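ugh finaly. both done.
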Amino acid sequence: MATPRDIYNNFLNTYITGSDVTMSFSSSYTIFETQYNCIIGADEYNYSNNPTLLSGSEGFVYDFVTGSYFAPYVTTIGLYDNDFNLLAVAKLAKPLPTSKITDTNIIINIDR
């Protein structure tokens, strides 16, 4: 049974007879990119929409969620138009903690 290397060598020996064969390939494709800078203020989005942070059927928030040591992480960002229609969803590679001291900047790149 012929190996893939044997088949390759047979192909070269059959179809390429000259000793000075030169091949080159070139390709190009233009990619347009748009960047959006999302700024999260130090006093913004310091809560979580996670339903497991609510206690029981009453919907009260657990005490540890309102404490000063609670720090949510950003995992997903939605981009909306002026009519509040969701246009794009950006997922971060890893969760990003928000800061209570300084603004957090997130740059979103969209290829089209």
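ok and the 2nd:
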Amino acid sequence: MTEQARQTATAADSAKLVAAVLVLAAGVAGFYWLADLPIWLRWIIVLAALGGGALVALQSHQGKTFWTFVQSSRIELRKVVWPSRQETTQVTIVVFVMVLLLGLFFWGLDTLLAFLTRWLTARGG
């Protein structure tokens, strides 16, 4: 495992995050401010602002930490052993059968309790 020097967030990192939010806010504001443009172009402006804001945010300490987390997550995902098609089908069938059986059980229990309630209230009143 590699050892990395611990870094802390600085004021410049905070400024980068604020700049990223401002870039995104400018894109959203442009969407409404440029109402005379076609809708597809306005959405491109918003998506470009989203991408630009993400690029600015990734330059901060928090952004780099987040990107490292994403890369580590992808590595861990490659290690997962996914079930085969046959296993998935078998488990799905078991789940459907159990749902059907439990549905019938609770329907029967509800019917029985409703019958008992009607019988007790008609007899007692």
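summary for the 2nd one i guess: The chain is about 80% helix and 0% strand.
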